[in-house]
Design goal:
The chain is mainly α. About 70% of the residues lie in helices and about 0% in strands.
């Protein structure tokens, strides 16, 4: 994965471009939100009313 190449050590290899940093933040935030809602939806379907 590309993020494992970027996040190494103390962050010395982190991208200096602010756009890349914001892009990674948005991508990780979006992915975690999607995973959360997918898990909540599955849990909602599994629990009887």
């Amino acid at each position: 994965m590309a993020i494992t190449k970027i996040v190494q050590g103390n962050g010395d290899g982190a991208p200096k471009n602010i756009g890349a940093r914001i892009g990674w933040f948005v991508a990780i935030w979006t992915l975690s939100t999607v995973v959360f809602f997918a898990g909540a939806s599955l849990l909602h379907l599994m629990i009887p009313k």
